[in-house]
Automatic annotation (TrEMBL):
Keyword Nucleus attributed: no
Protein name: Crinkler effector protein N-terminal domain-containing protein
Native organism taxonomy: Eukaryota, Sar, Stramenopiles, Oomycota, Peronosporomycetes
Superkingdom, natural source: Eukaryota
CC per GO annotation: extracellular region; host cell
Species name: Phytophthora nicotianae P10297
């Protein structure tokens, strides 16, 4: 078993360790990294790993990993990509002994495509009228077209607590 210290490339305060058998594949290392780091929400197969060794054969430290920049392809500049079909020992050797403060793996996760939230005031359709006596709120296709939701007419159920909150605190905003 080997302990590898990993860091999300260019992200502050995120170093973590993974213990894995050196005879496992880099693909298995991806799965172990995803399991160990709850900040990684994509599929393990979409994670890309890079050997955190600099040109002079020294390992990055925490501040070095935090300072790494990504190129136009989203890869850390100057670091070797780790092929998921290779064995871990192909990169670290059979007798690898990590030292204190070293980072061995740079982890790159794909950017999220998820839209955060829809700000009603910023839509091109303007503000909406809500009837506090209704249990439903209708959004036309045009309302959701650029929101990341399916572009169809939607009928949303409004809980009574929403009715109370929206009529007392939000009604005067629009």
């Amino acid at each position: 078993m080997v302990k590898l210290f990993c860091a999300l490339a260019g992200v502050k305060g995120n170093a973590f360790s993974v213990t894995i058998d050196a005879s496992e594949s880099v693909g298995d290392l991806k799965k172990a990294i995803k399991k160990e780091n709850e900040d990684i929400t994509c599929a393990a197969r979409k994670v890309e790993l890079f050997l955190a060794r600099m040109g002079d054969n020294t390992w990055l430290d925490r501040s070095g990993a935090e300072a790494v920049t990504l190129d136009e392809n989203g890869h850390p500049e100057g670091f070797a990509h780790m092929d998921e079909l290779n064995w871990i020992e192909d990169y670290y050797g059979e007798e690898f002994q990590p030292k204190r403060g070293e980072i061995h793996v740079l982890v790159v996760v794909p950017p999220s495509n998820k839209k955060q939230c829809l700000d009603w005031r910023s839509t091109r359709w303007g503000s909406h009228t809500y009837d506090p006596n209704s249990l439903y709120f209708v959004l036309d296709k045009e309302d959701v077209d650029e929101s990341g939701l399916p572009p169809v007419r939607m009928m949303l159920y409004c809980r009574p607590t929403f009715s109370t909150a929206s009529s007392s605190s939000c009604a005067n905003e629009y």
